[in-house]
Amino acid sequence: MLKKMACLALAIFLMSATQAADVPTDVSAAIIAKLKAARPDMQFGAVESSPIDGLYVVRINGTQFLYVSADGEYIVAGEMYQSRPGMFVPVKDLAAAEIRKKMMSAVATKDMIIFPAVDKRRGALYVFTDVDCGYCRKLHLESVPELNMAGVEVRYLAYPRAGIGSPSYKKIASAWCADDPQAALTDLKNSKPVPENVCDNNPVAAQFELGHQVGVNGTPALVLEDGTLLPGYRPAPELLKMMGLD
Predict the structure, then answer these.
(1) Are 62 and 43 in contact (CB under 8 A)?
(2) pLDDT of residue 93
(3) pLDDT of the residue at 15
(4) Residue 16: enclosing H or E segment and its boundaries?
(5) Which of 40, 47, 115, 227 gets the highest tally of CB atoms within 10 A of its CB?
(6) Nearest Cα to 32, choosing from 75, 1, 63?
């Protein structure tokens, strides 16, 4: 897992390096010179482009960052957000979202439990779920039917919070291994028992690890098709607005 987390961090670093390569050398040099003259005690990283023309991102002390004008004269410290339907998205998360999008699209649909759109498919929502999570049940029983009616395909991935080998793992793996995974998952969400059936080569452990890689630390965790990660329960109208489908 640590190796894969390192790969994700490396991918984000390489994306930042590509952004840095897009910055003219003279602009980068002028910004760094100005910043070093003002704060020689700080360690400044590469100058990266930002979504705003004339404003650049400079990493400081490894993990923090500043937004700086092209001449290095003016500096803004703090978070920058992009306005999207129903939410503000931190700009620093956009690179990670692009990587997350690719990772999610690489998951085979046969390995997910999918609740399809009732009529024409208008979008998809990935959901990392745990069968013993109250808000996961609330999402499944209240939001998922409404999302399906609105044309959203809900794609479930397993994330047993108690870990692989736990009772929660055995229950959710039994849903993935059932003859009718949709019905088994719905029964578990309704606190109904299903026969234990942990089949060989089930995808639960791989999906649990994938959840860690994309930043899941609780359930439900929702991933939009563009890679945006949304922690926690969201009602269907809010999700539809975020997806531009309201």
Answers:
(1) yes
(2) 67
(3) 47
(4) helix 2-21
(5) 47
(6) 75
Catalytic residue of the set 100, 130, 132, 177: 130
State residue 62's pLDDT score.
56
- CA gap 98, 37 in Å, rounded: 35
Catalytic residue, chosen from 100, 132, 133, 137, is: 133
The helix-helix angle for 94-105 and 2-21 (nearest 10°) equals 130
pTM over 0.85? The answer is no
Question: In three state form, how does the secondary structure of 188-231 look?
Answer: HHCCCCCCCCCCCCCCHHHHHHHHHHHCCCCCCEEEECCCCEEE
Give the up-direction half-sphere exposure of residue 26: CA atoms within 13 A in the CB hemisphere: 0
Q: 136, 137, 155, 177: which one is catalytic?
A: 136
Q: pLDDT value at position 95?
A: 66
Taking alpha carbons only, the member of 245, 235, 216, 17 closest to residue 142 is: 235
Tens digit of each residue's pLDDT (9 = 90 or more) over 66-118: 899 999 999 988 777 878 777 787 776 666 788 899 999 999 999 999 999 99
Positive or negative, the CA dihedral 8, 234, 183, 245 is negative
**Looking only at Cα atoms, what is the longest distance across the chain?**
68
Q: Confirm whether 133 is a catalytic residue.
A: yes
Q: Pairing relation of β-strands 123-129 and 152-158?
A: parallel
Q: Are 173 and 199 in contact (CB under 8 A)?
A: yes
Side-chain half-sphere of 63: how many Cα atoms within 13 Å?
1
- Write down the H helix ranges in 63-202: 94-105, 134-138, 144-149, 167-176, 181-189
